[in-house]
Specification:
Elements (H helix, E strand, L loop, with lengths): L18 E4 L13 H4 L8 H13 L4 E4 L10 H11 L3 E6 L9 H8 L3 E6 L4 H8 L4 H14 L9 E8 L7 H10 L2 E8 L17 H17 L3 E4 L18 H4 L1 E5 L3 E4 L28 H7 L9 H4 L12
Parallel strand pairs: 1-2, 1-8, 2-3, 3-4, 4-5, 5-6, 6-7
Antiparallel strand pairs: 8-9
Amino acid sequence: MDPSPTPRADSKGAAAMRWIEISPGFACNCRCSGCFSCSADPNLQMGWDEVLRWLRYGRSKGARDLWLSGGEPTIRRDFLRTLKAAKKLGYRRIKVQTNGMMFAYETFADRAVAAGMNEVNLLLKSLDAKTHDALNRTPGSHKLLHDGLQRLREARLPDGSKVRLEGDILMTSRNYQELPELVQWYCEQGVVHFNIWLFSLVDQGVRDLRRLVPKLRDCMPLMTRAHDIATAHGATLCSLNTPYCVVPPSHWQMQFDATGMELLVVNPGNQAFMLQTSSIEQGVFGPACDRCAVRNACHGIRSDYLDVHGDTEIRALTAEDVGDREPKGQVLDL
């Protein structure tokens, strides 16, 4: 019996899966505000046999690329073993999503690269160490991240090329004003792609973190400036969880297309789902949305955001608003 749901079929009827994201467990060496890992059971972990089974399953269904996430994947004892198995199975891109702290330790980055890792997605919170550490609720995490980044910049793949560096920016009321400076600095450090995530209350647990959710209308001028800075550096920037009506049409290219990734997410407990069906991607639509010219392309807005700020920012776009621009988001398969 297949261990996961059947991936979406493409237009020819073949199974469409290009990425598989495996989250082997939720244990982490940070306690980031709003992260599911803080409320999940840290003992809920995949054993090695289960990790290997999913690696094989992904390849059997056509997945070429692996996204290893968590929790924090680098603290698992089978981290290097997982990378080696993925490489042996023929995964082309082997991406590790991480807070970067473990890479600060001597030889760790080189060992991971030798095992098969060729891409790293770093979690970026702030250029200010105090703010970064506070959002991580982990003293010293900012310094470890930057020390790890330096070692990753120095690491080389077998062919002599550099590790591809990406950054996830969790946008909160504490850091959104520094988005342009944040993107500028990390571009200069060799980061070539950024994902901006709007802080979510979905996984906040019992803590009230509503104060950390910024208004999109306040964030958008800074997000578009950050996008333009990334573009000037030859990098790309993608915004997740933003409906088309709050993004200037001139910057619709920074919208994210979850469906286009063809990514199966696998969590402990045999939980598997296609990315576009996840709670974080499932937006809701208000009355105005029914009249919107881009309704069929939009993924709506998260309900937890509406619970905090309401729907006053949501409006129906007209054909005149759209003009000749195509409302088509980016696929994170760059």
